[in-house]
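Appendix B, Record 12. Input sequence as logged:
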Amino acid sequence: METRLSPASCSGRRASALLALGLVALVSACSPGSSAHTGAAEPASQIAQPRIGPLAASPPAQVTLPLDAYLESDRDGNTIAKAQNLLVATCMKQKGFTYQPQPSSGGTEGVTGIDDPAYGLSSSVGVQTYGYHNDATQLASNLLPYSIHDQYPNGYLVALYGTADLRSSSSHPPGCVDDATKSLAQGQGQYDQNIVGEVGGDAASRTAADSRIVAAIGAWSRCMRSKGFAFATPAQPAKQFAASITAPSGGSAASVPPASAQEVATAEADLACKASVKLAQLWTAVEAGYQSEYIEKNQTALAAYRDAMATKVRRAAQVLSGPTGS
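Logged structural output:
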């Protein structure tokens, strides 16, 4: 299943903002919290292939999809993250630790700063220097929380997360992060915390399998071959060069290594071929169509999700305006 749009975890644009607010924000502020899973998205068999209108001459500077209406705004996400950090800091103090959110990784000017869409590279910004390299801030966030093993003793991690083994999926007592997350979930009604991610993932999967997309990818592949690059799908070039991409120390944009000449040439050909077949425009239009259909068939569950998120934002604002947050 495609996971480009999955609000149950941080998106690229959300992660960059939340990284500046601290480690806890990355671990839990993007998650909806602990609530009942009440159902799944409408079965794919009941979703028809959507009609689309004429495609624009060039891709939009920023992609906006119907399901974005159910995502937290940057402002609300920041409010939740700040409240989460405040609650965690208070809890850690009670356990004898001083909690300090990790500082911002610094600016990433000059580094490709776009979300990784399902159709791969879509922006020429920074390509001649960084090729397929991810945004430096996102690379840093991908390392967390595991990199903190080198910075904090086990006792601190147990207090914070309930366990020092952050890779373990086994059950463990709640830590300050869990307690803070539970506190922010107060007042939320029953809702499916996975519904937005499921709807987005199902729509993306249907998009990738759509006959119009499959045909466009075939045309893109033939275009790439004519330029000397043999790839079957737009996701393959980035994977090929992934081994050469190492996360920068501390997430500093200045430490992101420049791409090789081969990577840059491949990326430039990739973008040219996508433009020639209007892959980005087609993909966006088709995915928007599928999202709209899934939203129509899951209105009740999505409305409950949006209400729960609004309650969480109000609860976060109360935390920040209280005695501890003032």
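The chain has a mean pLDDT of 78.
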